[in-house]
Amino acid sequence: MKISEYAVKNYQFTLVIFLMAVAVGVNTLLNMPRAEDPEINAPQFPIFAVYPGASPQDIEQLVVKPIENKVSELQDIKRIKASIIDGGASILVEYKYETNVEARFQELVREVNGLKSQLPADLYRLEVKKLPPSEVNVLQLALISENATNEMMKKSADKLKEALEKVPNLKTVEISGLPTQNVRVDLYLEKMAQMHIPATAVGGAIQSEMTNIPGGSIDAGNKSFNVKTGSNYKNIDEIKNTVVFSYQGKNILLKDIAYVHFDFAAQNHITRINGHRCVLVSAAQKPGFNISQSQEKYKPVITAFEKTLPANINMVTSFDQADNVNHRLGGLGEDFAIAILLVAITLLPLGGRAALIVMISIPLSLAMGVVLLNVMGYTLNQLSIVGLVVALGLLVDDSIVVVENIERWMREGYSRLDATLMGIKQIGMAVIGCTATLIVAFLPLVFLPEAAGEFIRCLPMAVICCVVSSMLVAITIIPFLSSKILSQHKGQNEGNLFLRLLKKGIQKTYAPFLNSALKHPWIAVGIAALIFAGSLRLIPVVGLSLFPSSEKPQFLVNIITPLQTNLNQTNEVTKYAESILAKVPHMKYYTANVGMGNPRIYYNVFPEQERTDYAQIFVQLEDDTKPSVKMEILENLRQQFSTYTGARIEVKNFEQGPPVVAPIEVRVSGENMDTLRRLAGKVKEMLEGMPAAMYINNPYDNLKTDIKVDINRDKASSMGIPTVNIDRTVRMAIAGIDMGTFNDADNKDYDILLTTPKDGRPNLDIFNNLYVNNIQGLAVPIKEVADLKLESSPIIINHFNKIRIASISAFVRKGYLTDNMMQEVIAKMDKMPMPEGYGYTMGGEYEAKQDSFGDFGTIIMVTCFLFIAVLILEFGTFKSTLIVLSVLPLGLVGAIGALLVTGNSLSFVALIGLIALAGIEVKNSILLVDFTNQLRIQGKSLEEAIREAGEIRFLPIILTSLTAIGGLIPIAISTNPLISPLAIVLIGGLISSTLLSRIVTPVVYKLMPPDVVVAPKPEEVV
Question: For residue 598, what is the DSSP state?
Fold first, then answer.
């Protein structure tokens, strides 16, 4: 090959280029962005609508349906999900995954803003939001104190927030668990009634004082000046002295009819860590930064801040993703070192110098691969690292084949230079063909659609980048090194002790089997076919799955108390759960969040919004807790919490891959709410009868009971009381009316809340002395124009693609396969009678599989044709191509067997291993078929060529297989369930294909020998 010859003859240039590659690679490795998991930037945008006081049915008709109708007209819409509750709705718009995220977001914002004129005028809020992957918090700190006041906690939390916001790598620093500080205006309604002062006059007076109207600009001389008018409040005394009314010729100030004071809003999020009162401060990392380098910047800031805390406030770093990343990457680094050691051991038969040359290809190929990976915008995370480790076992293959072939020519007496040029010429095209087939094998994973594809893509790209780099190394630097370093043999040389023992073993074991198979080719093919058919029968036994659970020593405890339980009661249940967690071995931190979910700390878990009947505990075990120990803890907790009768307490592990509601989700669709509720109950009953199901959730189980202020419109009209005044008065008394924000002299913002006196959260007593003003300003007790009634309404209304649905979900117990349960649920749902106009669809993992593998068949088909095209280019005949492809079924035998033995299912990642295995198998077969063809071209008979090629090529094939297995062993025995199945599949498949294909490929070659042009013998030429 000309490029190889050029590299050998111009070795100084070659050396400089590859030294540069190593230097750039090391620099890239140290500085490229690092993260725990790959970023998933999905074209999904939630639309939030807030309409206080409106029922779910009203919001559905007035807000959600107009938005759904408009959004559904846009291009590339995949699905629209809506969730409607009392006073608000969220609409999740999902575009097709290949669309431009930023362009679609801008389009959606324009369309939704254009709808505002058609929606209710008193709609409080309507906004479209993004869900960027960088919103995951990388840092969570807890300020702990049992006796510090809210003011002290807020002051410390604000200082910590300001300090973290100055770290350039961080963003979105948020405080959780501390009520908002405001200025509360508690109106004395009885006194206002005596003075005939309407509440609207008070609100208008406050807002008028906060209004700034620009005065314009004037010219003075040769300059222009802006004229400022009005002034916002500067302190609380100015608020107190606001003139709100005139009574009996005297100005009435706000402080005369109200108690104006600094206060905190009602507590809606209670936070504790290890049972102690705390405030949480969390921060996310800006995209494109290296989290390890970010930690070096924010740690000194945290340490310095901790020294400034008051004596009664402590601080702990309860969560730091950088520690997880460093630990994980450190563990993979150890695996990497072990893999290199095992690869070095497998290279011993080549001899010390030859092994050294092959080992040099590792840092060269990896350095170039990392540079390519960084250029294409990928980060260094657990999957890209796994891709590099997988590549480690593959990237030495080309070098092994080249060096072994050069060594073979040298053992026949040729000089180093001649042996190098002849060896690379003989094997060069085969090396390129092998690399091409490997790339083609990993292409389906590169083009895998949807979120699963984006999540996994960095793994195959890491392999492809390294394999391409290894090919360049094998045909340039390796020939140059071989021509300079390999020992010159004198006469015939059989190699070192390891090589002689290996060759002897091949001759004594492989040769007899090959001879027998060639004598009875059809029997050999039949036995191989039976073994393959048997492995296919094992697939249902192994079972199918999507993504496994996370192995990290972290999990969640979700607490769902009975419907409409108040925050205090939910807090008591949470304390019970905390008391159980405190006794768990290996416990490090348990962070309780009552009324909301924990701030987002995992890429596919989104925190629950404000709910009084919900709490979540984020549990962190000690860093060295083994996954098996964690799973045992999870099962013990599930058993303990299952006996608790006051609430449903769920123990949930973090799951890998794209987010799903639950593994099992049944969506029943139809229009009538009562019918949907009845069908949802039947589905829940069906799931409860399945032993594999747990944590079954049916949001339509109960109706919500509300207190309805039933206005007597005729009486209110006769008394001159607009109904809107009644609504405003009730809201002011219960939730309060936000008057706006003022900025004090210390540059701190405070909301001004107009409300009535109350201690803590409001109760029914709030209606006892509540007055509403008529149009003459006369105060009328609200009880004279309205009655309080209990009214039932749906808790929630869900839509899926504009159709009402009831979503019933369930998780799967340990020891059961999700796929098996899914098939059982589908079978039972198919038999369930449905009224006309009603039906069901499956969500959860079923929908995720459809998304992930929906277009996968086309990708696989294209890949198969690319395989054939590469092999046709390599060999020029269909027969040689078919012989090479005949090896593909043989890897499945060992792969399925390995999964069965290790107790793993055929997961998404294991499927990746099967696809990668196809490329490795074909690669080895190419070497055998190519060499057999060359021997026949040289004039050797069919069987002689088959036997000689089988024995000679068995050595590099078994060496490359052993190096690949050696590189994969650390991953296979690792505790990470996301990546270990990949290595297990490859190891099992390599063992079976290496052993079986070395028999089957020669046999198939004999049964259908390709046509070759035999070179004429010297005497024939004469």
Answer: P
Which among 393, 372, 472 has a CA at the least distance from the CA of 431? Answer: 472
What is the DSSP secondary-structure string of 233-268? --SHHHHHT-EEEEETTEEEEHHHHEEEEEEEPPP-
99 DSSP assignment: S
291 contacts 298 by C-beta, under 8 angstroms: no
Q: Over the range 96-135, which residues count as b (16 or more CB within 10 Å of their CB) and which as e?
A: ebeeebeebbebbbebbeeeeeebeeebeebebeebebbb
- Shortest CA distance to 933 belongs to which of 846, 1001, 865, 1000? 1001
Strands of 839-955 (E only): list them.
839-842
Which helix or strand (DSSP H or E) is residue 80 part of?
strand 77-85
pLDDT at 389 over 90: no
What single string gives the DSSP state of each residue in 279-291? EEEEEEEPTT--H
Which pLDDT band holds residue 830 (cuts at 50, 70, 90)?
very high
Cα angle 798-801-805, degrees, rounded to a multiple of 5: 30
Structure tokens at 1002: 């020669």
Instruction: Give the amino acid at 71.
Output: V
**Pairwise CA distance, residues 116 & 118, whole Å:** 5
CA–CA separation, 864 and 437 (whole Å): 10
Spatial distance between the Cα atoms of 1014 and 799, rounded to a whole number of angstroms: 71
- Determine how many CB atoms are found less than 10 A away from the CB of residue 719: 16
Which uninterrupted H or E stretch holds 771? Answer: strand 771-773
Query: Beta strands 77-85 and 648-653: pairing type?
Result: unpaired
Rounded to 5 degrees, φ, ψ at 34 are -120, 145
pTM (two decimals): 0.80
Q: What is the pLDDT of residues 316-366, one digit of tens each?
A: 999 998 888 887 777 666 767 777 777 777 777 777 777 788 788 888 888
Q: How far apart are CA 142 and CA 313, in angstroms?
A: 10
Q: Which helix (H) or strand (E) holds 357?
A: helix 352-375
Cα 354 to chain centroid distance, Å, stands at 43
Task: Return the percent helix, strand and coil in the chain, to nearest 5.
Answer: 55, 20, 25
Return the SS3 of 748. coil
- CB under 8 Å to 63, separation ≥6 — which residues? 49, 51, 89, 119, 120, 123, 126
Amino acid at 782: I
Question: Angle formed by the axes of helices 942-972 and 497-505, to 10°?
Answer: 120
Which residue from 77, 112, 83, 80 is spatially nearest to 97, judged by alpha carbons? Answer: 77
Closest CA to 445 of 464, 471, 431: 464
Pairing outcome for strands 648-653 and 554-560: antiparallel
Query: Tens of pLDDT along 542-599?
Result: 877 777 788 889 999 999 998 878 899 999 999 999 999 999 999 999 999 999 999 9
Query: Token pair of 347, please?
Result: 């290279």
Q: Which of 839, 849, 723 is nearest to 780 (CA)?
A: 723
Q: H/E/C letters for each residue in 22-59?
A: HHHHHHHHHHCCECCCCCCCCCEEEEEEECCCCCHHHH
DSSP assigned state of 133: G
CA atoms within 13 A on the CB side of 113: 8
